[in-house]
Amino acid sequence: MRTKRYLKLSCLAASITLSMSCNKLEEYNPSGATADAIWSTPEGFVTNVNAAYSDQRAWYGKEDGVFMSESGTDIWFNRDKNTYAGQLSQYAGLTPLQGNPVRAVWRDIWKAINICNAGINRINDAGFTNQQEKNRREGELRFLRAFYYWHIVETFGGVMLRTEETKTPLLTAQRSPVEDFYNLMISDLEFAVANLPLQSAWGNEYSRASRKSAMGFLARTLLSRAYYSTGAEAQTYFTRARDAAKAVIDNRAALEVELWANYADMWNPANNKRNKEALYVVSNSTNQAINYDANGNRLYQVFQARYNGKPGLVQSLEYGFENSRRLMPTLSFLNYFNENIDNRYEASFQEVWIANTNFTWTASLAATHRKHPSVIGKVIRAGIDTALLITKKVVPAHRLKPYIVIDRDSVYNTNGTIITGADYINFRKFRDPDRTAANAQPGFKDVIVMRLAEMYLIAAEAEWKLNNASAAAGYINVLRTRAAKKTPVNQTVAMQVSAANINEDFILKERARELAGEHLRWFDLKRMLGANNGQAFVDFIKAQNPDITQVQPFHRLRPIRQEEMNALANADEFGQNPGY
Q1: 331-369 burial, b for 16+ CB within 10 Å, e for fewer?
Q2: Banded pLDDT at 330 (limits 50, 70, 90)
Q3: What distances in angstroms separate CA 87 from CA 92, 103, 380, 428, 555, one per listed residue?
Q4: How far is CA 151 from its chain centroid?
Q5: 8 Å CB contact between 39 and 45
Q6: What pTM was estimated for this model as a whole?
Q7: Per residue in 114-167, pLDDT tens?
Q8: What is the mean pLDDT of the chain?
Q9: Which one of 129, 194, 397, 467 is at 20 to 30 Å from 60 when CA atoms are compared?
Q10: CA nearest 446: which of 201, 276, 211?
């Protein structure tokens, strides 16, 4: 979908309080028309539907979303062991007044929900004469409302559930049970499934919600909902989640979606646009004038490792831009992979940098980099020779290598903590070599929010919870067959798992191997590790990421902005989330 800066509703309560600023909503209105007038025609109504998509772009492809959904988990820590956004990445001082991504997300998502509510409640007065077109537009809004509410309820818990447009600041709020949020989301998504078209029907606006988007998000929503129940009710929701995911898998040809034959093809930049495995994307255009902002998709920077200036290397489009690198992989995350049989490791990480400039070792540089004198005079040839190796393995005698070697023992202590975090293996899934220049920050790749592989993992998790471990292994083996190295030896058999392998730990780690970086990891841990009132969440994170020491069970929810609480006349009744 082209991401024009469409007219948005002016300050119609993006927030529950008077503290919401209107500055973020200033948009060009060529006609000077009021919101009521814009909503009253099909053409104007579609403009506001377009506006309802906008605020997902503050999360997907941006640092805020990555820190909210990936950091503070088992698989990432701050590069250089710094404290950037440490409230989320390290649970250090996360309070209602600290944690800028949390505070921004609260503001932006409520703004988007209000636009969805306005459209859903106004659509009968918008003048649509084509019922199918009307239902499509309502389907978009209901999909988006469910999409935003999933982020709200999973992040903040049972806060206020709004289904009516807010036109003036509200000074009181009432909490709703989590189950009520899910009832609304499921109902909205079922409507969207019934009324949204295939992706191809949208033509060039391919990032609009489509039938496969709604079906996929319904499966994710049902799986999340099941964990809020016990006994027979939980089994019902796990069954529904399994069936919803299976519906996508079984109808993938009709839904115009398919797995790539090779996991690496999924992340080949040449396959990014209209990616055949994607169920839902946030698109970015190379024409910055029609994007939401000038940054586009910045994911390629977040996990970037340092290479520029090392012997034989200069900054390049191929190797990436380092200025906003934020997160590095934990040793546990690297160890989740058996790189000898699983090609997802090589597709996800970069260990070797080939020189992109000629270089000759001098005595001075050999001493600086603690190389053996035998390397003096050796030449590193651009495009031919290795310039840098950063590896999860231990490399003996690396002083003798005529290139920089940073091995496991250079990055991690034996207990898994990080030594300095200055250098680390590069996570390269989101590389963007098609930017305008090597030092240009905006990225133009689409953000793949949800893809077909997730449906196999949802079906597997649901089957495991239904005590069908063999069926769970079957779904997982589809992905592991794809991920198996095929040369020089075909490792497909070695990659297969059986019912005996399926447990919580395996499913969590398999999701990391497949979906790392895709805005899901924190939600996965929150969902699956609720045992002992959240102590399982704490224990797992500390065991796998020992640099995180301050995580507590209450961190499975984030705090509500203090400004919102201050402006509520019934703040004591509404209550801050526990622990904050």
Answers
A1: bbbbebbebebbbbbbbbbbbebbbbeebebeeeebeee
A2: very high
A3: 5, 12, 43, 25, 10
A4: 11
A5: yes
A6: 0.93
A7: 999 999 999 999 999 999 999 999 999 999 999 999 999 999 999 999 999 998
A8: 93
A9: 194
A10: 276
